[in-house]
Amino acid sequence: MSRRHMSAVLAVLGLVAGVTLAGGAGPAGATFPGMNGKIAFSSDRDGNLEIYTMNADGSGQRRLTASPGTDDRPTWSPDGKEIAFSRTGDDSYEIYVMAADGSNQTEITTTPGENFWPAWSPDGSKIAFMNSLDGLFYDIYVMNADGSAPTRLASGGTPDWSPDGSKIAFFRDSGTPFPSADIYVMDADGTHQTRLTTDAGVNYEPSWSPDGSRIAFASTRVGGDFDIYVMNADGSNQSRLTTDTANDEYPSWSPDGRKLAFSSSRDGKAAMYVMNADGSGQTRVTFNDADDEDGDWQALADSDGDGIPDAQDPDGVAAAISTLPADAFAGGGGHRTAFLSRLDGIERSIAAGDLSGAIAALQDLRRKVDGCGSVADHDDWIADCTAQRDIRALIDGLIASLSA
């Protein structure tokens, strides 16, 4: 969320005079179970807040958006292939969706007023979000993932969907003592709203753990600055994870549930940090004279549980090779066996972390299927031209995923 929007939210709660936020974006969305992928975050290092991605250790930082306004509050889709985010335009916020590489940026909201703070449902079919008609009072809406059929659920803000899709966590002004805000949960249709926190101060930015058992959040209950806390999903066993006197905010679980990303201003400007789920091992991972914040962790699917994300797993190519008839291969069953043996070796390289070696081996294997329809190539292992094109496309996709 931008500084303008966060200030407006806190103004509703009467907090602007008493609380200085570390940064300007919103908290991370729900983290879905899977393998740990990249972290999307927002940064104003190039002037405006824009969306970036990086590896969990801070390496491989890449800028995805470059709009003239503000791009913030990135949240990964459950399959890790898309990112929803908020963007300013003509002094209004709208929700956009883009591919994981930043391409195909598309505005999807049509609800009057300002629309921001998106949160995907676990099945990827819906997005919850905040809406404001006047910049002061906020409601939670849900819409289809294409932006259609927006429906109001409740007053409040910062929605976060439980991993099983049954509930949404959010925050709301609690009225007393002043100023205060608390974390609530409700059924996904807006019913059965239940208050989870009752401590003085501001409790907001709920982030549901991948297994649905816990909720991380930010709170000013001790000392007036924001710290990261965690509690059971029913509100019990609330415990403090960070104790720095600066603001620690925007918690986001890793898909394996072992770590939390968060932002902190403890070193001056807001920066991205990663810590263990018990609060130990707090490590800074971005280093810029700018505000880096609002992280959200990508979940990568691993259907066969072999520790290799589906998008990087050679099993898809192997399955396609296995289904081809023997007469599709120049050398019959022998070339099929050789192909599958090569893919087994490539899978072992990926599992060992040798991605450059796996890419080189895939490029060599691709040369075995690149002659049909152009120059005669006696090394072609697949004689059928249609099969060559199909296998070549699968190998190219695997190389692109491993190179990302």
Brief descriptors of the model:
four-stranded antiparallel β-sheet; alpha+beta; single chain; eight-stranded mixed β-sheet; Neuraminidase; 404 residues; 2 domains
Task: Describe it.
By secondary structure, the protein is of the alpha+beta class. It folds into two domains: 3-300, 6 Propeller (Neuraminidase), CATH 2.120.10; 310-403. 17% of the residues lie in helices and 35% in strands. It has five helices and 24 strands. The chain has helices spanning 3-13, 315-323, 333-351, 355-366, 385-403; strands at residues 35-46, 48-54, 62-63, 71-76, 82-89, 92-99, 106-107, 114-120, 126-132, 139-144, 151-155, 157-161, 167-173, 180-187, 194-195, 201-208, 214-219, 227-232, 239-240, 248-253, 259-264, 271-276, 283-284, 292-300. Strands 12, 13, 14, 15, 16, 17, 18 and 19 form an eight-stranded mixed beta sheet that branches. It has a four-stranded antiparallel beta sheet with strand order 3-2-1-24, with no helix packed on it. It has a four-stranded antiparallel beta sheet with strand order 4-5-6-7, with no helix packed on it. Strand 2 and strand 3 (62-63) form a beta hairpin. The radius of gyration is 24 Å and the shape is elongated. Mean pLDDT is 88; it is low at 1-9 and 14-28.
